[in-house]
């Protein structure tokens, strides 16, 4: 039987984690709502352009749901924001440094992916100028199918574990632990086949310094 002395500590930890997540959801909702209002847009306007339901947009703005990366991408595109701009003021540390402990990166989920495919955002850029967005990506379901991605910036991938066939344009590259891969992210790209799972790699998107 667990020692009852540990229960208060466990409950306190769970409460802190829940408060942190709820705080993040409220923060995201507040930024999206303020940006929408500044642009004189209604919830219906944003929902139609982002191809989301009005109810979902309302829940996101009120911090009532955990927002997927796909929904965030749709909303930020409609509102003219980047993910970096969205998170620029969240939990801003003093001195311009940011320390993300192991396992503490913001977990975001792409629509249609399974639990075995996760993205952890490792840094939140608060500046107005787009800089970079680093993700730790984990995959452990070899049968999962992946969409093709295409977005602005240059992308850098460094393999930490596993083997993956990765497509860029008309070419497929086999990436193994220790390999690095840099490419133009405007060219269609994405996982072609998960050869050896589990797979973990760093994916860093580097944007133009002029923010265009």
Structure report:
- The protein is an alpha+beta fold.
- It has two domains: 8-81, lambda repressor-like DNA-binding domains (434 Repressor (Amino-terminal Domain)); 102-212, Jelly Rolls (Sandwich), CATH 2.60.120.10.
- It has five helices and seven strands.
- The chain has helices at 7-38, 43-50, 54-61, 69-79, 83-86; strands spanning 106-108, 117-121, 132-139, 154-168, 171-176, 180-184, 189-206.
- Strands 1, 2, 3, 4, 5, 6 and 7 form a seven-stranded antiparallel sheet that branches.
- A hairpin with an 8-residue loop joins strand 1 and strand 2 (117-121).
- Helix 2 (43-50) crosses helix 3 and helix 2 (43-50) crosses helix 4.
- The longest helix is centred in the N-terminal third of the chain and has 32 residues, at 7-38.
- The chain starts with 6 loop residues before the first helix and ends in a 6-residue tail after the last strand.
- 19% of the residues are buried.
């Amino acid at each position: 039987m667990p020692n009852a002395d540990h229960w208060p500590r466990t409950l306190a930890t769970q409460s802190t984690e829940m408060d942190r997540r709820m705080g993040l959801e409220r923060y995201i909702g507040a930024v999206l709502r303020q940006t929408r209002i500044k642009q004189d847009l209604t919830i219906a306007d944003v929902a139609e352009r982002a191809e989301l339901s009005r109810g979902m947009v309302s829940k996101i703005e009120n911090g009532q749901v955990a927002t997927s990366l796909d929904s965030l991408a749709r909303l930020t595109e409609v509102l003219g924001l980047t993910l970096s701009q969205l998170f620029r003021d969240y939990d801003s540390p003093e001195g311009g440094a940011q320390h993300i402990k192991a396992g503490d990166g913001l977990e975001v989920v792409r629509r249609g992916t399974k639990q075995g495919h996760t993205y952890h955002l490792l840094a939140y850029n608060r500046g107005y100028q787009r800089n970079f967005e680093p993700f730790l990506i984990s995959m452990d379901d070899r049968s999962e199918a992946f969409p093709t991605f295409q977005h602005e910036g240059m992308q850098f991938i460094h393999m930490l574990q596993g083997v993956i066939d990765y497509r860029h344009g008309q070419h497929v590259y086999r990436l193994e632990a220790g390999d690095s891969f840099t490419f133009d992210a405007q060219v269609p790209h994405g996982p072609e086949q998960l050869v050896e799972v589990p797979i973990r790699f760093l994916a860093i998107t580097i944007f133009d310094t002029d923010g265009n």
